Amino acid sequence: MSTTAVTADLPRTRTSRNWQPRLVRAELLKLRKRRGLVISALALTVLPMIIGYTVLLSIHAANPGKHGPAGGLENLSGSVEMLTLLSGVATILVGATLGAGDLGAGVFRELVVTGRSRLALFAARVPAGLGLILPIVGAGFAVTATGSIVFAGSLDAPSASLLVGSAAWLGLVTALSLVLALGVSSAVGSRGTTIGILLGWQLIAAPVLLEIGWLGSFREGLLGAATERLEPAALFEGGTTVPMSLAAAALVVVAWTVVPLALGAWRTYTRDA
Amino acid sequence: MRSRRLARENDPNIVREDDTESLSRPKTGGAGGPSVEVTDHEIGGHMNTAGFVVETSGLTKRFGDRVAVANVDLRVPRGSAFGYLGPNGAGKTTLIRMLLGLTQATAGTMRLLGRPVPDERAAALARVGAIVEEPRFHGHLTGRENLTVIAAAREPEAHDRIDGALARVGLSQRADERVKRYSLGMRQRLGVARSLLADPELLILDEPTNGLDPAGIHEFRDMIRGFVAEGRTVLLSSHLLDEVEKICDEVAIVDRGQVVVQGSIADLAASGKQTILIATSNEEQALTILSEHRAVESAAAESTGIRVTLHAQDGAASDDISRRLVLGGLAIRRFEPARVSLEQRFLEITSRLEEAA
């Protein structure tokens, strides 16, 4: 083993130059190097869109009289609905890994030992998570948006403003799911437990609660009700399940952003590393 | 309190809790003879602390009713290899975790590199590298990527140190392999490389040779001495007496959460009971004379002579013993002090503590 000094004359003071971006890049590195996670996320977002349009094109080609064109506004609506559901699952996987990955690997204490603020370590996870999941979900949306235009045939193609609005809405829903998963996993400290809890909540409990009419205005506090209120009207016809004002929906979204983040940050700050 | 019980012993070279004249600064070995320090509780209040990279005062950690670290006063001199020695479960790792801000102290104060922690924890830890228990990594990342992740949490210059750190621990050729393929020894080296990213003034290594083969341990030992030669301080926590004795200059012995004795290894070994190896022309007669001497605690025949243990360090007593042997008509063929190892001293201290408990 060499005995050469590593860093004899390097500065002895800490500077803040490029601090946060480096932490974010490091978090992103940890995520994107998890091949299984990235493949799963792609398989839940891009792949279903490709398969969906392939099937629609096939059945349209086989029997154009019975099956309409694969694209158009109506098919966009259906595929975005599916993409929202599946990208929610992908986002939970990413968010849970993001929040509990360091703990699971035992690396959290190594990060704490650097002296870096625990809150800074936590905060860097948000843009890193978004940096991974938004392009993936965006790619899925790009597939469906392209398909809806290219294969519209005789059907009405979605307008540019609708596509932009839909993309923004999908981005919001994805970001909210990520924040929720990140907050819960940082608080719970276990990736598996977080995935179990959130899949149960997102796929079963929340939709069921939304449909229970006697819960009344309580349902306005559910994230699903608020995001439904904010979705582009032209994309999903039939109105919202829980009527609520735009301001109330915005307030609920803010609450579902702040509370999980605060919970995760608090637990990251107080946890024995 | 165990250290108070120890303080009842009549050993002039040990600085004790109730030896108030000795509280102002630690003694060091020199012309005045060896010195070993036993827990005092007023460290830092009225002394120059510039020479210490770690100072704790009354540091305590409780887990419910269980006290893991009890009122520890520790001072680690700058530029030394300092052993924090104690059996498993003695509270070594808990103390290190408190120093590094991994867990909160229940009571007491700490200073790292002269800075109070946790108040100035970030500034203090900027120049501290540490391995706590087994070094952990993201297995799906390469060695280099793991260092990149940690460097991102440190100052920007830390990134420029990655290649040098990998080269220093001999991992340059394997740096781009995933860590899950690394052996335990390679992980230990990578842990050291990671701690070097801080350009550390202080390295805290908790049981660093766990799981290493003899060659790896030897290599590790050389590396640690190399760090000290560069002017860095190494705080080495270990339950291995031999390891601490071979690597460290100073040591604190900890038991059941308390530091029971602290000082240089040479002084510590010398501060215990005096042992003399004697060979004479008539062993039986010599044993009789020795057993009647008031300063002799025990005398036992060995293959090379008689091993005599005195009650305490006492030059006059050994002179008197040699005189009586000669007056008894015996020819003395050997009369020399036995080298006392840290292990013997450690066992001596802990057995006294057990007797006193």
Descriptive notes:
- The complex is a heterodimer of chains A (273) and B (357).
- Chain A is mainly alpha-helical and 273 residues long.
- Chain A has one domain (19-270).
- Chain A has helices spanning 19-32, 35-62, 72-105, 108-112, 118-123, 125-150, 160-188, 191-211, 223-230, 246-270.
- In chain A, α7 (160-188) runs parallel beside α10 (246-270).
- Chain B has 357 residues and is an alpha/beta fold.
- Chain B folds into 2 domains: 2-270, 3-Layer(aba) Sandwich (Rossmann fold), CATH 3.40.50.300; 275-339, Alpha-Beta Plaits (2-Layer Sandwich).
- Chain B contains 13 helices and 16 strands.
- Chain B has helices at residues 2-7, 92-99, 121-125, 143-153, 157-160, 162-168, 184-196, 214-229, 241-247, 265-270, 283-292, 315-327, 342-356, and strands at 14-15, 36-37, 52-63, 66-77, 81-85, 107-112, 115-117, 128-131, 202-206, 233-238, 250-255, 258-264, 275-280, 296-302, 305-310, 332-337.
- In chain B, the strands form 3 sheets. Chain B has an 8-stranded mixed beta sheet with strand order 1-2-12-11-5-10-9-8, with helices on both faces. Chain B has a 4-stranded antiparallel beta sheet with strand order 4-3-6-7. Chain B has a 4-stranded antiparallel beta sheet with strand order 14-15-13-16, with helices on one face.
- In chain B, α6 (162-168) packs across α7.
- Chain B is elongated.
- Residues 1-49 of chain B have low confidence and may be disordered.
- The interface between A and B is large, with 42 and 54 residues.
